[in-house]
Amino acid sequence: MSILTLRRKNIFRLGGILWLWLAALPPALAVKPMTSNSARKQVYQRAVEAASSDINRVAQQKNWRNFHSKLNVFIPAEVSSFRPCSRPLSVALPQGDRLDLARLRYDIRCEGNSSWELAVTVKPDIYLPVVVAKNTLERGSNVRAEDIELKKRNITSSRGGYLIDPDEAIGLTVKKRIRDMQVIAPSQLDSPLLVDRGQKVLMIAEQDGVEARMMGEALKKGRKGDMIKVRNLSSKIVVSAVVDQAGVVRMLYAPGQS
């Protein structure tokens, strides 16, 4: 027998002994494979499904476009002691809770072979194109198209709300100074003044399909839709009227009534 043949047999024999030794290891020393269907994974997947569904529903209601979201899921540590559920997990908002996209809470329940329940929190980051100021907008100025633009921002951290359509801001008056690149909230804007106190205005009254027009004097400043008092310059009678457009008001009562 050649030396080479002998070496090959020894290697095979050694390999066989090594294989048998590994196979004889007690189960406690063997590495357990990570189950792909653990209770934690089931809970995580169900929470993501529920949060994604709620976000998409709100996005459709509010006509969001080109948005994306990242979900931060917080699962209690006790889930590690639960057995995987043999049935699909049920999910519901806690009793009395209202949907709040800044902090979504779900009660996730297993009703299978080993029943259990967990309260899970999902904090989404939702990025949506919203109206921001291109430059600093001073108080009292009117917003122009060149003053604003759309930028993606995390709306879950926007206080006071946001606007997704530039037309919702153009022409409105800035109530409080807005910094450049700051998200513009509806509460920061106001309708422009259309009528000033002491201003001569056109009074329009309509009754039984007949329209009458006369000149009056505004006794109070007003924005579109505001109700103000106006004095008829001819009769000197003071009536209530609603501001309709710049320098124009519509009377609530027929001419001659106060």
UniProtKB/TrEMBL annotation:
Q: Which UniProt keywords apply?
A: Cell projection, Cilium, Flagellum, Periplasm, Signal
Task: Output the superkingdom of the source species.
Answer: Bacteria
| InterPro entries, sorted | Flagellar_FlgA (IPR039246), FlgA_N (IPR041231), SAF (IPR013974), SAF_FlgA (IPR017585)
Name one process (GO BP) from the record. Answer: bacterial-type flagellum assembly
A single Gene Ontology CC term = periplasmic space
CDD domains, per database record: SAF_CpaB_FlgA_like (cd11614)
**Domain SAF residues, every copy:** 128-190
Query: Localized where?
Result: Periplasm
Primary localisation category:
periplasm
Pfam families registered for this protein in UniProt:
ChapFlgA, ChapFlgA_N
Question: Which protein family is named in the record?
Answer: Belongs to the FlgA family.
Per its database record, what is this protein's job? Answer: Involved in the assembly process of the P-ring formation. It may associate with FlgF on the rod constituting a structure essential for the P-ring assembly or may act as a modulator protein for the P-ring assembly.
Name of the protein in its database record:
Flagella basal body P-ring formation protein FlgA
- State the species of origin: Paramixta manurensis
* Organismal lineage: Bacteria, Pseudomonadati, Pseudomonadota, Gammaproteobacteria, Enterobacterales
